[in-house]
């Protein structure tokens, strides 16, 4: 079999060092962003800080050219930023209080369910997969699974919260930099995104690594038990992500729909106009939904794919022979990923300079390509030094012999499938290509045709990503069974730091545009922030594509681990137990989407009524003489999202428990397969339909081409039809679509964590009858 080139000590050093490098790099980026001051400072002529030509501190400010008062603009930006930051922080604290109670209750549930497998006995027991050996008692698994669940939940919360903090710190700074040129604004927004990306990737890796080493002190040689209890980490990460995504999604879209319908369609005022009472709530929503929610979501994917790979590896030759370096192969991939993303980020911020608006989107796309190419080399090196030349992988009861180059191909297939999904998503959601332009063109004949074209585009956009995922699954399973699929998912997520940087860049640019409008800056600055925002919209859609693709692979890998752990020999679709699970599982994403869509609708209804009330009753509001009551709108969004996130969350968290306990593991395996198959399709089509409608509206507003000018300007009938399409798409692309990928992952990881209980005590109804 041979041993890995990299020694155990080398692994012990390499993983934490890479994580620390990621954290240090993110702090450096944060420092560079903080050098943009939010106080009006006049610079003496001739004095310029180091690197001034590069980062342009000695450029003229547009405001100075146009003779506007610089001080009042900066002060306004600082005030608006404070309002957004306070709104986002108070919402997240409220959300975390509610979710915290739920987490504690669920942690107790995990302990009780898993502890009861052996009747809370403290005696050692025969191992699940090798009855000749003795393993630690089930009670230990219960305690350690509960601890790792809480660790995962805590890391997920911290990731989301830190992301939100940096985004609200950077939004006004991006606006102020836009006065110096589009390149400066781009670098500020992108650096801020990178802070979040690297913090999250490094924290996730470091906490998981420390947890494994601490658990090892107790478990010793019992690696099967050790890595089974680590799966709680993925469950904790994803359950927090679910509430973050659903709660944040309802918050942001209630405000967005309310602001757009009354402001743009009824009152004909621009987006982010300070007279609109819902405008602060809308900008807060970008941070709590798109940043905090997205951060927790991708952290959950990362934690779960690592856990799925570790569980399978622990019962393969890596775990049986106690080969620590090969065992931590998933963590080594993530470690190299951080270094690769670090080099990639420098391409955007330091090696090349953006001088014109049209260079923004290509620069972001280059990030994806560069990181994928470099990561392919990185994976080859890790595979060569971290794995023996041949080894065996657990494959549903048998051990399959695998070569190290085959595992390299599994990871690479996942990585490149992610890139393909990203580019297909971009083709269907960017207004530079014909699909979105066709949707915009259909607005000539009103909102109905716009909706028809948008829905058709979403359904069509599912085709290529599904083929990419299917090829990825076939190749990786053929080479290395379920372990291959788990590392393919990790390959897709290996460039998570760059993916998140690109993703967080979008909402930061969106906020920057809103602040420019509210602070009354010139239309030239608003044009620049709009260009940043339009590119950000497309990259956000690419990020969602990545999240959905990786969720499909992750949940399949978790499904495989669950089937192995629950000792199911085959999942036979023709048996009634499995088939009823399959058909019910396929229905769950629809039930879940119905709940989240209706929540957005009812919250938006309250918001529209409040915005109308203020326009009708506050004298001088439309003329700009009176200030609107922003706080009431923020409160409506907060209350609605906290109340409405509980039922969808409960549906996802309770389904596996109820099905596993009453109907048994076969029916549960059917439910998981059904939810995976239908959830992925709905998630991709919902995200892309919403993204296309949003960019069709922006295409008409920007009026950049002859075709777009025939449809505009703002306020024309085609534009109003486009706004209606965008409003319908809002809950699709930012609430239901992105939350669905958490539904399929979370049900799978939860089933895996509770598998020992279901295998021992599950299927009560079938036992009675």
Automatic annotation (TrEMBL):
Q: Which organism is it from?
A: Hevea brasiliensis (Para rubber tree)
State the compartments where it is located.
Answer: Endomembrane system
Question: In its UniProt entry, what is this protein called?
Answer: H(+)-exporting diphosphatase
Main localization of the protein?
membrane
HAMAP family for this protein: PPase_energized_pump
User: What EC number(s) are associated with this protein in UniProt?
Assistant: 7.1.3.1
What InterPro entries does the annotation carry?
PPase-energised_H-pump
Its membrane topology, per UniProt? Multi-pass membrane protein
Q: Does the keyword NAD apply?
A: no
């Amino acid at each position: 079999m041979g041993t890995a080139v990299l020694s155990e000590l080398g692994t012990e050093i390499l993983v934490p060092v890479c994580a620390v490098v990621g954290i240090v790099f993110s702090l450096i980026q944060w420092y560079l962003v903080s050098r943009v001051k939010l106080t009006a400072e006049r610079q003496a002529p001739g004095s310029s800080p180091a690197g001034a030509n590069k980062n342009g501190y000695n450029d003229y400010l547009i405001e100075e050219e146009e003779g506007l008062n610089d001080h009042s603009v900066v002060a306004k930006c600082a005030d608006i930023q404070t309002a957004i930051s306070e709104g986002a922080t108070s919402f997240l604290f409220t959300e975390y209080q509610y979710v915290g109670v739920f987490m504690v209750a669920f942690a107790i549930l995990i302990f009780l369910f898993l502890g009861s497998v052996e009747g809370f006995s403290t005696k050692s027991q025969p191992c699940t997969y090798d009855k000749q050996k003795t393993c630690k008692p089930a009670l230990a698994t219960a305690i350690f699974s509960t601890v790792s669940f809480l660790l995962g939940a805590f890391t997920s919360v911290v990731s989301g919260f830190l992301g939100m903090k940096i985004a609200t710190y950077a939004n006004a700074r991006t606006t102020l930099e836009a006065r110096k040129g589009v390149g400066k604004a781009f670098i500020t927004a992108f650096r801020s995104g990178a802070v979040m990306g690297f913090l999250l990737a490094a924290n996730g890796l470091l906490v998981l690594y420390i947890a494994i080493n601490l658990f090892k002190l107790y478990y010793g040689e019992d690696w099967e038990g050790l890595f089974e209890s680590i799966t709680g980490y993925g469950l904790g990460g994803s359950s927090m992500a679910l509430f973050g995504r659903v709660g944040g999604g309802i918050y942001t879209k209630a405000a967005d729909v309310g602001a757009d319908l009354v402001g743009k369609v009824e009152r004909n005022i621009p987006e982010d106009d300070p007279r609109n009472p819902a405008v602060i709530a809308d900008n807060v929503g970008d941070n709590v939904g798109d940043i905090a929610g997205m951060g927790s979501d991708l952290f959950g994917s990362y934690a779960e794919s690592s856990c799925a790979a570790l569980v399978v590896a622990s019962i393969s030759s890596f775990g049986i022979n106690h080969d620590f370096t090969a065992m931590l192969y998933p963590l080594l991939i993530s470690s190299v990923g951080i270094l690769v993303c670090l080099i990639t980020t420098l391409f955007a911020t330091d090696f090349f300079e953006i001088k014109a608006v049209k260079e923004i989107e290509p620069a972001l796309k280059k990030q994806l390509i560069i990181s994928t190419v470099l990561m392919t080399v990185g994976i080859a090196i890790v595979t060569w030094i971290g794995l023996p030349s041949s080894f065996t992988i657990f494959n549903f009861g048998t051990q399959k012999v695998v070569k190290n180059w085959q595992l390299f191909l599994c990871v690479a297939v996942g990585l490149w499938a992610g890139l393909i999904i990203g580019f297909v998503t971009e083709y269907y959601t960017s207004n530079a290509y014909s699909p979105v332009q066709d949707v915009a063109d259909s607005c000539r004949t009103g909102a109905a045709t716009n909706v028809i074209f948008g829905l058709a585009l979403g359904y069509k956009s599912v085709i290529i990503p599904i083929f990419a995922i299917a090829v990825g699954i076939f190749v990786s399973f053929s080479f290395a069974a379920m372990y291959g699929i788990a590392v393919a998912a990790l390959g897709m997520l290996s460039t998570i730091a760059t993916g998140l940087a690109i993703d967080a860049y979008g909402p930061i640019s969106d906020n920057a545009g809103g602040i420019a409008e509210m602070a009354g800056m010139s239309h030239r600055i608003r044009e620049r922030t709009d260009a940043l925002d339009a590119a950000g919209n497309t990259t956000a859609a690419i990020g969602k594509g990545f999240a959905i693709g990786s969720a499909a692979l992750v949940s399949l890998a978790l499904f495989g681990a669950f089937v192995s752990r629950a000792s199911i020999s085959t999942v036979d679709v023709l048996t009634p137990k499995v088939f009823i699970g399959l058909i019910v599982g396929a229905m769950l994403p629809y039930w879940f989407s119905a709940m989240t869509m209706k929540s957005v609708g009812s919250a938006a209804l309250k918001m529209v009524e409040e915005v109308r009330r203020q326009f009708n009753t506050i004298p001088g509001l439309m003329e700009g003489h009176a200030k609107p009551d922003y706080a009431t709108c923020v409160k409506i969004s907060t209350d609605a999202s906290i109340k409405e996130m509980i039922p969808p969350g409960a549906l996802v968290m309770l389904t596996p428990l109820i099905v596993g306990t009453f109907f048994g593991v076969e029916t549960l395996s059917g439910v998981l397969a059904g939810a995976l198959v239908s959830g992925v399709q709905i998630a991709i089509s919902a995200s892309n339909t919403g993204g296309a409608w949003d960019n069709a509206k922006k295409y008409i507003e920007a009026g950049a081409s002859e075709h777009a000018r025939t449809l505009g300007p703002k306020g024309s009938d085609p534009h109003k039809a486009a706004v209606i399409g965008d409003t319908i798409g809002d809950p699709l692309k930012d609430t239901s679509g992105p939350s669905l990928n958490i539904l399929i992952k979370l049900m799978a990881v939860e089933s895996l964590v509770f598998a020992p209980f279901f295998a021992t005590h599950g299927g009560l109804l079938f036992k009675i009858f």
